[in-house]
Design goal:
Layout lengths: L1 E7 H12 L7 E11 L2 E11 L5 E4 L4 E3 L1 H14 L2 E7 L8 H17 L5 E7 L2 E8 L4 E4 L2 E5 L3 E5 L12 H21 L1 E5 L3 H13 L3 E5 L17 H4 L3 H7 L3 H12 L4 E5 L6 H5 L6 E4 L4 H13 L4 E11 L2 E12 L14 H7 L3 H9 L14 H20 L10 E5 L4 E5 L8 H4 L24
Parallel strand pairs: 1-3, 1-10, 6-7, 12-13, 12-15, 13-14, 15-16
Antiparallel strand pairs: 2-3, 2-6, 4-5, 7-8, 8-9, 10-11, 16-17, 17-18, 18-19
Helix pairs in contact: 5-8, 5-13, 10-11
């Protein structure tokens, strides 16, 4: 079982400031956390930092620290009121690891918490000058096990393996990737190759993104799409060929294949050792959505509001960066009147798709209804364009995909530095222009309400969405 701690960069810097404020004396703080468990990995997901008031330290010396029962009772009340767990944080002024005193004190606190809240997860974080150390406390019998990794999510994803339990270095085939290594360095290429990614929607933007990821060196990918292949897809679907669209018995079979199968088959030809899982289902289906929860980065390429809203919530509830992309082309009598696109980076402390006014509640409601009810609403004029085939051109979708993939490289390597701290990129094809966009995080938005809850809150999914399998991208 791998165990990790995931925390936003803002929260990590806040807890770091609190712990180092009284050097050379030790200090402490709490992290209120949700958690997730999937496919051999358990994660503490930090919702917020809880400061301990100075008057609630009973002892605060260079190598000795104690907190009052009032502080412990306070964090127990927060855990109970929010159905969350806790990570106990403190620092050492030197490189000393966990001490016997730490073991005794943390064990006592964990057992006190479990007396009131038996199912609550308890962890520990130790900050030292040479780097962090972490562990999880387990009951029956009470014992500590080391964390494998700490993941800090900001303008880039900082992954800190902990000791020999962390991620091993990924082998890089220099014969294939030497030119990328020359640009990104050995460590940068390893970060890309070790990243677990997902692509939701494998049409024009999604199939282009999936191919770029695999050619970059990604070795573990999940594809989610409920659509099937149709002849019109050949003009923009990477991995489709003339044989897929030709009128023959073979083409008839291919036209009924899920898009994820067509794209996956193509990706395996690029990288035979690729670890790939496909879900020919809408991302609002519970199984398909849960396939995303162990990913390091998710690419959101679907064109429906329902699917976008689900993955939007995943980004904040499970602290998984999501790169959302969309293209809109308007034309009149064969002439392009407007062609625009946007790429969003969805992560903690950045605005979500609701904050950006990118989602519409009435559209989501209509899309989630059975097909007959959706068509009735459309006929009555309550919603428009539910099943309309949006105009699409491969050069435009590939352009946007390239921006999204480059932002993935930024998340892995921080090659842009402070310029990489962005929320949205807008593309204006008619002007051949790209500009940054921004907006404010809305108060009481879903992105703040669900942050870090993980499995402690349900996702807006259904067992089996009643959707037609069609090709619209």
């Amino acid at each position: 079982m791998r165990r990790v701690l995931k925390i936003s960069e803002n929260d990590f810097e806040k807890v770091r400031r609190l712990l180092l404020a009284d050097l050379p004396r030790e200090s402490a703080a709490f992290l209120l956390v949700g958690w997730s468990s999937l496919r051999g990995q358990e994660a503490f997901l930090v919702r917020r930092v809880v400061e301990i008031p100075k008057d609630q330290f009973t002892v605060q010396e260079s190598y000795r620290l104690g907190v009052s029962s009032r502080a412990i009772n306070g964090i127990i009340a927060l855990c109970e009121g929010n159905a969350l767990g806790v990570v106990l944080c403190h620092n050492h002024p030197d490189t000393t690891p966990y001490s016997a005193s730490d073991d005794f004190g943390e064990k006592r606190v964990a057992e006190t918490i479990w007396t009131f809240l038996p199912a609550v997860p308890v962890g520990s974080l130790l900050l030292r000058p040479d780097g962090p150390q972490g562990r999880a406390w387990l009951p029956n019998p009470t014992r500590a096990v080391d964390l494998n990794e700490i993941v800090v999510i900001g303008r880039s994803v900082w992954r800190h393996p902990l000791g020999s339990n962390g991620n091993g270095a990924v082998h890089i085939d220099h014969e294939i990737y030497d030119r990328q290594v020359a640009v990104l360095g050995e460590k940068g290429q390893q970060k890309i190759s070790s990243a677990r990614v997902a692509v939701v929607g494998v049409g024009g933007t999604g199939s282009a993104t999936a191919e770029q990821l695999v050619r970059l060196g990604a070795k573990d990918i999940v594809l989610v799409d409920n659509d099937v292949f149709s002849p019109s897809n050949k003009s923009r679907l990477y991995g489709s060929f003339e044989a897929h669209a030709r009128h023959s018995w073979y083409a008839f079979w291919e036209r009924n294949r899920p898009k994820v199968a067509v794209v996956a088959n193509h990706l395996r030809k690029i990288q035979s050792a690729l670890k790939i899982r496909t879900y020919a289902a809408h991302v609002a289906a519970t199984e398909a959505c849960r396939s995303l929860l162990d990913r390091d980065v998710i690419f959101l390429c679907t064109d429906d509001h329902w699917g976008r809203s689900v993955v939007n919530q995943v980004a904040y509830q499970y602290l998984i960066p999501v790169i959302n992309m969309g293209v809109r082309i308007d034309s009149d009598n064969g002439k392009i009147t407007e062609a625009v696109a946007s790429v969003h980076i969805l992560r903690p402390e950045k605005p979500c798709l609701w904050c950006s006014n990118y989602l519409r509640a009435e559209q989501i409601q209509a899309e989630s209804l059975p097909e007959t009810e959706r068509h009735a609403l459309e006929r009555e004029g309550y919603v428009q364009g539910l099943d309309m085939r949006a105009p699409s051109v491969i050069s435009f979708t590939t352009w946007v995909s390239a921006i999204a993939t480059s932002l993935f490289i930024q998340l892995m390597t921080d090659f842009m530095g402070v310029q990489g701290d962005l929320a949205r990129v807008n593309v204006f094809f008619n002007e051949c222009a790209t500009r940054r966009g921004t907006c404010q995080v809305l108060p009481d938005c879903i992105c703040t309400k669900v942050k870090g809850f993980g499995d402690c809150r349900p996702l807006p999914t259904v067992a089996s969405p009643q959707l037609p399998r069609r090709s619209r991208r």
